Automatic annotation (TrEMBL):
Pfam families according to UniProt: HTH_31 (PF13560)
Source organism (scientific name): Bombiscardovia nodaiensis
Database matches in SUPFAM superfamilies: lambda repressor-like DNA-binding domains
Gene3D superfamilies with a match to the protein in the record: lambda repressor-like DNA-binding domains
Domain of life of the native organism: Bacteria
UniProt protein name: HTH cro/C1-type domain-containing protein
Record-annotated membrane-spanning stretches: none
InterPro entries: Cro/C1-type_HTH, Lambda_DNA-bd_dom_sf
């Protein structure tokens, strides 16, 4: 599944979709990504700033890849 990521809301939607596709709760994903559930909840709702390490850890837990593509 490809999803264009341009905003933090897009990141949050990708996390939520990936989590739901796996049948995981926010708590389960947070545990697997070693982040807090509250942080994950904020990101899933489009929190405007984030910790890059936590974003990458969450992508890894979901087995998602982030690509940077120039136009």
């Amino acid at each position: 599944m490809k999803q264009r990521i341009r905003t933090m809301m897009d990141v949050g939607m990708a996390f939520k979709a990936g989590r739901q596709a796996k049948g995981w709760t926010q708590e389960e994903l947070a545990r697997r990504a070693h982040v807090s559930r509250s942080w994950l909840a904020q990101v899933e709702t489009g929190k405007p700033s984030f910790d890059t390490y936590k974003v990458l850890a969450t992508l890894q837990a979901l087995d998602l890849t982030l690509w940077a593509v120039s136009k």
